């Protein structure tokens, strides 16, 4: 059984003309998607901006409600889960956001940011929380000197490391990494990708890694799913998708991106 089972998932938005009036227009951001994500793997979800990737990632965590379809996590139907059950399940499901600054509360110091999930979900003393936070900082390549500092005092790459530490705080099984390096320059992004690979090995993580960059996905992913206009148009092993793409959209993605170096 897969750790995450997505079946016929659809998310529809309705709205009128931007100028007002006119008939209601229906937009299917996610259109009948089915995917399995197995424990310990990285499923790369790749596609251009607006293809529905981020919406699918949030649906997988039930951060937004689907129009139809189902998501099962570790055998539990998320759509049927009560608020109490969902709260317990969320310990094992976390997200790393695209924007490493906007995703961190500027009013909180680093210690508060990383400790917040522990305050909500675990009955730890203040000292025990601090010890855990320092361990998490070290795991992402930072040290305890960061504890009293605020997000604006860090570079983009450092802020993303803080966001990763926060996502790891409850020792989750599954992480949705939503374009986690697209806001970083190439060298810093490569460091963060390597960090994610290292953490996956150390913590036994399962990733849904969302990106518009085929080279980055190819480097990190075990399998790849290609998304276009709300649908999965092709999926397979990384080798199958990158060496023998069948769909014309996948072929165009590969043709349009440079080779990853190093």
Low-confidence stretches: none
Helix share bin: 25-40%
Distance separating the two termini? 35 Å
How big a fraction of the residues is strand?
Answer: 25-35%
Number of helices: 9
Query: How large is the radius of gyration?
Result: 19 Å
- Total number of beta strands: 10
Query: What string gives the helices and strands in order?
Result: EEEHEEHEHHHEHEHEEHH
Determine the oligomeric state from the structure: single chain
Helices and strands in order:
Elements: E1 4-15, E2 25-37, E3 42-46, H1 53-60, E4 68-73, E5 76-77, H2 83-89, E6 93-96, H3 110-121, H4 126-139, H5 156-168, E7 174-178, H6 186-203, E8 206-211, H7 214-220, E9 223-228, E10 231-237, H8 238-243, H9 248-256
Parallel strand pairs: 3-8, 3-9, 6-7, 7-8
Antiparallel strand pairs: 1-2, 1-4, 4-5, 9-10
Helix pairs in contact: 3-4, 3-5, 4-5
Give short descriptive properties of this protein.
single chain; 262 residues; alpha/beta; 6-stranded mixed sheet; 4-stranded antiparallel sheet; 10 strands; 36% helix; 25% strand
What does this structure look like?
By secondary structure, this protein is of the alpha/beta class. It is built from nine helices and ten strands. Helix content is 36%, strand content 25%. The chain has a six-stranded mixed beta sheet with strand order 6-7-8-3-9-10, with helices on both faces. The chain has a four-stranded antiparallel beta sheet with strand order 2-1-4-5. The mean pLDDT is 92.
């Amino acid at each position: 059984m897969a750790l995450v089972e997505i079946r016929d998932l659809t998310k529809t938005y309705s709205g009128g003309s931007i100028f007002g009036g006119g008939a209601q227009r229906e937009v299917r951001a996610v259109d009948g998607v089915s995917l399995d994500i197995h424990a310990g793997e990285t499923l790369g979800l790749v596609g251009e901006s607006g293809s529905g990737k981020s919406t699918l990632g949030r649906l997988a965590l039930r951060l937004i409600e689907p129009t139809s379809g189902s998501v099962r996590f570790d055998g539990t139907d998320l759509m049927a889960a009560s608020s109490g059950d969902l709260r317990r399940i969320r310990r094992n499901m976390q997200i790393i956001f695209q924007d490493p600054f906007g995703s961190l509360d500027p009013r909180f110091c680093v210690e508060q940011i990383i400790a917040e999930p522990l305050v909500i979900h675990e009955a730890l003393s203040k000292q025990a929380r601090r010890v855990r936070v320092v361990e998490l900082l070290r795991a992402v390549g930072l040290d305890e000197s960061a504890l009293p500092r605020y997000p604006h005092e860090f570079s983009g790459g450092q802020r993303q490391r803080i966001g990763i530490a926060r996502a790891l705080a409850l020792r989750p099984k599954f992480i949705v990494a939503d374009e986690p390096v697209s806001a970083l320059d190439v060298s810093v992004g490569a460091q963060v990708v390597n960090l994610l690979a290292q953490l996956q090995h150390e913590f036994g993580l399962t990733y849904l890694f969302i990106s518009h960059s085929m080279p980055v996905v190819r480097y990190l992913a075990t399998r790849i799913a290609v998304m276009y206009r709300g649908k999965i148009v092709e999926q397979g092993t990384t080798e199958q998708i990158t060496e023998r793409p069948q769909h014309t959209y996948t072929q165009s993605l590969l043709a349009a991106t440079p080779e990853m170096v190093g």
